[in-house]
Amino acid sequence: MLAVPPSPLPSLALLPEAAVVLAPGGLVLVSSPPADELFRCTPVGRSLADLVTDPARLWAAVEGLAAGAHVAAVPLEGVRADGVPFGLDASVRVLEGGGVLCVLRELDTQITTSLEAAFDHMPIGMALFNADGQVVRLNPAMCALLGRPAEEVLGVRDQEFTHEDDRAADVDAAWRILRGEMHSWQCEKRYVRPDGEIVWTFANLTFVRDEYGRPLCWVGQFQDITELRRLASRDPLTDALNRRAFDAELSRCPAGALLLLDLDGFKDINDVHGHEAGDEVLRGIAGVVGGRLRRDDVLARLGGDEFAVLLPRCPMDEAASVGADLLALIAARRFEFDGVERGVTASIGIAPVGADTLAAADRAMYDAKAVGGGRVRIHRAL
């Protein structure tokens, strides 16, 4: 049976600080309300080993001390109920019977004065997060990246601003770091601004500990690479997606329709009027096709005079209507070269998104071209 202090246990109900009373064996006998908040649970009835990772450090600090003795600060690593570690300083007083009163203070996560100027003036986004992932400080570049003033970000978890498709990877990486499997995390991730705009960043996240190995904070660096990704994924002539970026979009699309467009008469313009004329046609056709599409639709130039249009969540009857509209818009677009008005038509193949999407749409497109072009053909599964 555990020994408990023979004197009446101190009441901690009105104490404004996190505090617990421990029996000699480490069982929590009493706790203050702030301690419940600190550990995200009720400590009473739990062992000290459930609340900190290094209970032996506390017992070593008070070993051999008489009742009434006080230790100003024992460095500890606390663990919240959800498993998140955090740094603690424990002010400890030895009680009659061998128990102890511990007043607990979570470590401050503010940066030192000498680093403040560099932090605030860094040209890339920087942020400090507490052990729970809440933003405790950020610089102006980070505010600009998120499109939000500091007061809207402070105290909020990074996940709230992260694109929903990137959240799981962030959480998994954070736990791997906390478990000691790796020391930092680098990745490309997306933030979502208040107006819905997507910002791509290269993120570098590190978990910082003090000289005792206790958690202090997360430090994040975030570089806006939106324009770099756009340039890397775009066809430089038409600004449509390139083949590599299109393949990635198609692989992520769960359902919808794919349209493949091949221009009829383009080679003749190229041969007669030169490649600059051909380039003008390609830019013009990309413009009229892009102007017909929805915000979530994808336009890509696959090479030469072949374009692809991906229509996510679009049924085939609507896709056929889009194909007919594009056919008319392309035929109506006129160009003038060497005083001669020229135009092109398109052969369009349509197939539902699935395992053989690209090949199926390609077969339908060649069916349209085989009968003279300027037509839409829909792939019909056998």
Lay out the secondary structure.
Elements: E1 18-22, E2 28-31, H1 33-39, H2 48-51, H3 55-62, E3 70-79, E4 85-94, E5 100-106, H4 113-121, E6 125-129, E7 135-138, H5 140-146, H6 150-153, H7 167-178, E8 184-192, E9 198-209, E10 215-224, H8 226-233, H9 243-252, E11 256-264, H10 266-273, H11 275-292, E12 298-303, E13 306-312, H12 316-332, E14 334-337, E15 340-343, E16 345-352, H13 357-370, E17 376-378
Parallel strand pairs: 16-17
Antiparallel strand pairs: 1-2, 1-5, 3-4, 4-5, 6-7, 6-10, 8-9, 9-10, 11-13, 11-16, 12-13, 14-15
Helix pairs in contact: 10-11, 11-12
What does this structure look like?
The protein is an alpha+beta fold and 382 residues long. It has 3 domains: 18-106, PAS domain (Beta-Lactamase, 2-Layer Sandwich), CATH 3.30.450; 113-228, PAS domain (Beta-Lactamase, 2-Layer Sandwich); 234-378, Alpha-Beta Plaits (2-Layer Sandwich). Helix content is 33%, strand content 31%. The chain is built from 13 helices and 17 strands. Strands 2-1-5-4-3 form a 5-stranded antiparallel beta sheet. Strands 7-6-10-9-8 form a 5-stranded antiparallel beta sheet, with helices on both faces. Strand 16, helix 13 (357-370) and strand 17 (376-378) form a beta-alpha-beta unit. Helix 10 (266-273) runs antiparallel to helix 11 (275-292) and helix 11 packs across helix 12. The chain is elongated and about 105 Å long. The chain starts with 17 loop residues before the first strand and ends with a strand.
